[in-house]
Amino acid sequence: MTDASGAMPPPLPVAIPAEPTPGKRLRCLFAIVMVFVVIGPPVGALAFMLSIAVIGMGAKVDLIGLSWIGLFALIYAAPLSYFIGAGPAAAGGLVFGVRQAFFGPVNWPVAALIGVGLGIGFLVMSGHSLPAMLTDTEQPEHVPVMVVTCLAATMACWAIVRGWHLPPRGVKG
Fold first, then answer.
1. Are 101 and 166 in contact (CB under 8 A)?
2. Mean pLDDT estimate for the chain
3. How far apart are CA 167 and CA 161, in angstroms?
4. What whole-number distance in Å separates Cα of residue 163 and Cα of residue 165?
5. Are 35 and 93 in contact (CB under 8 A)?
6. pLDDT tens figures, 8-45
């Protein structure tokens, strides 16, 4: 466009996006931790109850019975899951939050590894030594159930927060 004299007006200044402020990064971190703390334990409780039910049913998995167990888990186990799962969920949320708020997004293989790590960490923190659990003949399904529980909860939370990331420090947004 030209003005009345036929000259071109000066170009508008281009705004260069600034690096996110520390406050914005901390808000992102807090939001991710809160999603993990609020969503993770009920999802873990549902995964735990359904895993135990499938193991208990053996080869004769009854889908109607499994549905009732899932409903039972949502009604009774989900509220109680915060007593057991809030700590591991907060730890996982902190790992994801720091990574996504300060260093960029977490892709799904890393999210799955974090979930498996949380499951193994949860088993170790429960007071059992891990090698003894791997050779336990009374409850051999204990290790996979806890790992699947933590993995399911981690992946559900990751699916919610995977787009909530900021550019790494030093990179303009």
1. yes
2. 84
3. 15
4. 6
5. yes
6. 777 777 666 678 888 999 999 999 999 999 999 999 99
- At 5, the amino acid letter reads S
Q: Cβ(45)–Cβ(152) under 8 Å?
A: no
CB 46 within 8 A of CB 73: yes
CB-count exposure of residue 129 (10 Å: 0-12, 13-18, 19+): exposed
For the entire predicted model, the pTM comes to: 0.79
Residue 24 CA: distances (Å) to CA of 8, 30, 49, 102, 104: 39, 10, 38, 10, 14
Alpha carbon separation from 98 to 26, 29, 32, 85, 117 (Å, rounded): 9, 6, 9, 20, 17
Which helix or strand (DSSP H or E) is residue 123 part of?
helix 108-125
**Gap between the Cα atoms of 48 and 70, Å rounded:** 10
Q: What is the pLDDT of residue 11?
A: 73
- Amino acid at position 63, single letter: L
